[in-house]
Here is the input.
Amino acid sequence: MSPDNAVPKRIIRQIPETEENIKLKHMIIMLELCRESDEKLWKQLLLLQLDDVKTLNGGESRKMKNKSEENAIMNHDIDYEIYQYVNQQAESYIPLGELLAQRNLSYDSAKHKTAGFREKYHQLQHDYHIRNQNVVMLCLDLMTRMEQLPGNQDLEYLYFCTVTDAGLLNEINLGGHSEEQCIRNYISQKERVQELMDFMQMQSQYQEKFKQLRKNLKKIIPGEKTDCMQEFELLYKLTLQHTFLYRADKKQSYYDNLHSLLMHLNSNQQLKSVKPYLIFAVLSRKHGMMLNREHFIPNLQTVFQYQDYQIHADNGKNFNYYVSYLELYDHLRRFYQDDSDIDSALCDFCFANASPLSEFYYQHCRGDCEIPINLKQKVLELKAFSFPQLFRYDDYLYYDIQEFETKHSEIYQIWEKTADTELTAKVLKLLGENTGISSCISELPYGQKYPRFAELFLFQISEMALDKQMTDFAQKIIMLS
Here is the structure.
């Protein structure tokens, strides 16, 4: 701990919902979907995109490269961001021969391992009676089996294989994939699955620590309170830098309450080990009491309970508060990073799993800080862009749902309002029973006038619903383990 650590220059910045940012997001999704189906074509598209950006900037790549990153960030230069993303991706391309050499594989052995990976996946499905006629049936059966057999590592492996699959295992749109692409997808997927399994194991360990800590909180007896004035003065100045504690320096009650809290945490080794999280949680959840109530003693058991926040809609104030909360935790992590008494990994687990602030950060902010993630966020980070695929592209070659949305915006908006949870659940149920969804078309106004577009729309909302069910289930896995 030092004054330098207590005065960070880092600021978390939200991503504004501008037309340019939405366009960038769509471009990234389009490129990643292409990468999963044809990596050679993906590289060609990257180079074309790179040429387009250079052309827009006077044909000089140096003009883009020489831009100050700080200046580009401050002015939110979308051309710079596109250039930066595309250039990084183009440089990451590795020819298949080199990719195999890095992993000590020959082409034939890679083919054999790819086939073995598929065989193991389908054998486990068979062993656990998981139907696989379609992706919906597979996912619903898999989640049911995992609830019936909590902590089963085979089922956890199947889950991670399913969400990272880009068509290698569930072949709904695999027809155009080359043998080389299948090998590439195997290498990428196998490594992602292993990363998720390792992360899952670590999360399970900290889940046990977390449970034990909550249990022991009821029995904790504070020890002798020692002098911590130097630490406190630095901590006090640190907290005053955060906007949700604005004018706290005018409150004697805040000064006294924070001092009392710190002495209490330092008086017990278990509390001290998670001090950064506890200080963060008390200040973010109870800052009104800390500011205004004299001799306030927070109930530390409550700050380990899940605190929900509305992270999907900005009311003009809440997002600013969330950013300030995130900055405070990031600041506290670095403030205590050299303290050997602190269990930083357990603090991070508590932070990531006791509120949706981590999810808010990765959805709405630029990734400038190392904000801890939970298993759900890890799955979102590593899952296939094409998961889940519920229909065959070839069946709808001449039907562009985005073009329909533009041309018939009023009808599309009516469909969006009509497509409630009940209708989506009905579509998923039919798909899970391997039954067609044509009976649902009539539930969409004008659906029978545009039946193929209505089908595509229903597939689209069902994919989003199933995707959410499967990624949300990731957190349940931790609770079941």
Q: What stands out?
A: DSSP finds 23 helices and no strands in the chain. The two ends are 37 Å apart (CA to CA). The longest helix spans residues 179-217.
